[in-house]
Amino acid sequence: MVQRKLVSRGYHRKFTLPSMSDVTCTRCNQTREQMTAPPFPNELGNRIYDSICQPCWKEWLQYQTAIINHYALDLRDPQARQFLTTQTETYLFGQPQA
Ligand SMILES: [Zn+2]
Fold first, then answer.
1. How far is the CA of 57 from the centre of ligand 1 (A)?
2. Does 31 have pLDDT greater than 90?
3. What's the CA-to-centroid distance between 56 and ligand 1, angstroms?
4. How many whole angstroms from 11 Cα to the centroid of ligand 1?
């Protein structure tokens, strides 16, 4: 018997944006809450915004923090940023963008 767990996590929404919409996420294959804005002001940011849901993005942010700590990344270093970008793509899309 499958126990269905209805998770009602308290995503603290202090205010509801009128343009709040859903996105069909390519990572979890569910239609869920969309991010409020692209996370980066570039092509990758737009791609994430268009195809990754807010819950998956939050998961990534937690994982990203772990990566930064693990590798002691200095984000002023372009190589470190490049590394993190590759990790972002792999985590969200399954493979780095060619
Ligand atoms: Zn998702």
1. 7
2. yes
3. 4
4. 15
Cβ atoms of residues 35 and 54 within 8 Å: yes
Rounded to the nearest angstrom, the distance between the alpha carbon of 13 and the centre of ligand 1 is: 19
| Domain 23-93 part of CATH 1.10.3880.10 | yes
Q: Are strands 31-33 and 22-24 parallel, antiparallel or unpaired?
A: antiparallel
Ligand 1 centroid to Cα of residue 97, in Å, is: 18
Name every residue whose Cβ is closer than 8 Å to that of residue 97 and which is 6 or more positions away in sequence: 44, 89
pTM to 2 decimal places = 0.74
Q: Is residue 14 scored above 90 in pLDDT?
A: no
